[in-house]
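Justification of resources, computational component.

The compute hours requested in this renewal are based largely on the per-chain cost of generating structure records like the one below. Each record pairs the submitted sequence with a full structure-token output. That output is archived, and it is also reused by downstream analysis tasks.
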Amino acid sequence: MTNTMRDWIEKESGMHYKNFIDGEWVASKDGKTFELNESAFPNHILGYFPASNEKDVEDAVIAADQAFQEWKNSPASTRARLLYRFADLLEANQEELAYVLSAEQGKVLSESFGEVTRAAAEARFNAGESFRVNGVTIPGEIPGVTCQVTPYPIGVVAAIAPWNFPIVTPVRKIAPALAYGCTVVLKPSSDTPWSSVKIIELLIEAGLPKGVVNLVIGSGSKVGNPLVAHPLVKGVSFTGSTKLGIEINKLAAGHLAKTQLEMGGKNAAVVLDYADLDFAAEQIVSAAFSCTGQRCTAISRVVVLKNQEKELIEKLKIKMENMKIGPAWDEKASVGPLINKQQHDSILKYIEIGKKEGAHLAYGGVIYESNLNKEGYYIYPTLFTNVDKNMEIAKEEVFGPVLVVMVAKDVQEALEIANATNYGLAASVFTNSLSVSKKFAEFIETGMVHINHGTASQSHIPFGGVKNSGFGAFSIGYSNQDFYTHMKAIYNKA
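The structure output for this chain reads:
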């Protein structure tokens, strides 16, 4: 695998890529490009991508709007057939997609393979959603008048994807849009545009009609803002930071576009007299450090009762010590590099803040230099103990391999600590008590609650958060219909 991935990257690197607008690969209007560098080898150029602007956005939105006039009337079977074929192609090209993903994002290959598998599962679920666009017939109060409420597609959707999951997140936005009859303009992160190019190539192979999905690559200011503000864009599906999500919501509100915002998280694992602490530690460490902690659903806080604090901390440290750090092509690696220097420096800043706040650095907290590669931005998985809920490292989203442990005197205080954050995405609760699990499921302020396992979602279950973690309809699953469709009430007199 080592030589295979490296050989493939070297062979495929250095090419020039274009936007995909109205069924054609086209250069940006002003011809500008930027270089994309490999995460594990920051000086290695993977390719050159268009630095697009508002003129490219205009062309893409117009193309999507024109395509919508026909696509919205396409049979469910046509939409489903395209998505089923696309899901099959994702699986058939899993290895190449994983190489691209790991090269530009940095995550280890096993995670990249898993991400492609998940993307295929979500695409396949949404193929079925094409046939599940459900309305209702309601008895009328006037004789001879029947009443129906029926959904219809909203139109052009701006899909704005992040860099941490550059395969599954675009698919998570494109697939339901197509299933419900919408068209798309995709703006990927400038840190991971290569994955989106590959996604479009597979959609074309699956039979994508002209203009139904368009790709515009470039910065948030020159592509993202004009895309969100465009009057023909009727919905914005965004995944990224809370700060940026709030700004996008303001911009979209200027022309009453719907928004679906998946934003930050400060997710807690609450351990309450749980019998199998070894299993809890395994689940926590896996959820905390997969994607090198660079995911919104990462567990970043642990709340434990005093009687199990010492034992749980020791088990967490053992699990962390057994993690292997290295580049994606190292088959034994379980933690890859941070995506870039900016992210690396941000994590180090928070580690220093934790020390200054008086938290105890129990493990990690230093730069790691791989024997295979000393160029990538690696940090040891880090564990802080003696943390207070008011510390910055307990409240702010670090978005990296940093885990903090806090102690509660009882179940009620554990709940209060878990809720003592502006975020509300996901939480894990480890308990053998049915009543405690029911209490936390009801009163914890998150969009998702995981009882006795880590924060792993599924490809058909609604995904989203509350407070500063989410706004609008949950993504994944049937809840997408609330975002991608409008509602129409029809009164029909015989």
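The domain at 2-263+469-491 is CATH 3.40.605.10 (Aldehyde Dehydrogenase; Chain A, domain 1). The mean pLDDT is 96.
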